[in-house]
Amino acid sequence: xxxxxxxxxxxxxxxxxxxxxxxxxxxxxxxxxxxxxxxxxxxxxxxxxxxxxxxxxxxxxxxxxxxxxxxxxxxxxxxxxxxxxxxxxxxxxxxxxxxxxxxxxxxxxxxxxxxxxxxxxxxxxxxxxxxxxxxxxxxxxxxxxxxxxxxxxxxxxxxxxxxxxxxxxxxxxxxxxxxxxxxxxxxxxxxxxxxxxxxxxxxxxxxxxxxxxxxxxxxxxxxxxxxxxxxxxxxxxxxxxxxxxxxxxxxxxxxxxxxxxxxxxxxxxxxxx
Length: 273
What we know:
The protein contains 12 helices and 5 strands. The protein has helices at residues 2-16, 37-44, 48-55, 64-73, 78-91, 109-117, 137-143, 157-163, 167-170, 174-191, 196-205, 209-216, and strands spanning 123-127, 132-135, 225-232, 236-248, 251-258. Helix 1 runs antiparallel to helix 5 (78-91), helix 8 (157-163) packs across helix 10 and helix 10 crosses helix 12 (209-216). The protein is elongated, with a radius of gyration of 21 Å. 32% of the residues are buried.
């Protein structure tokens, strides 16, 4: 899986670049989208044969200099470069990572105490495949009217965003929510390549074209700090700043700062006010 992820990333990024993006003449119409392998190889200062071996998974030990040159040639931003580096490091792993086994579905007392202490700020815990593991009362009060706990979502945030009919109405900037979820799952499958539950969620989401395109393109965003605009059934239009923490290897605490800039005084606006 690690080798495939690395190869797929190279191929996907090459397909998304146009000649004019890298200062090359557009030329005649191309049979396949994006740059030719030879063009990327020339930009990176490597041979086309070597790039072919990387894309086909026949070479699994690119040097740091080669990785940096490829990142420049593919015009990767900082988020994409970080992901690219993690994929390259995973090529060298001969044994499964200690944290790649069974995910913990039980929230520890310490993490539960943390999200409880954040009350009245909405806070909740996501598992590695975007399953909702715990939340404080403010989060439930805010999220329940949105349909986040409806039966069809199976308590899964990713399924809510892509599969729930109310998600597009709830998230006024739905694309930002979709990018956040897809990027988070991409990080999870890179970190836990052998987790079948992560794979199962990705396969299920693959039935939705909006997810499939993001996944095929290896689209990445900074999913840890996101601003979402939400049309809430009870509160009207609100702006939510999301901050993400990783207190455990396979669990994530997400804090929703609701209408912070509109608060009457410094601090957070109460969800139930």
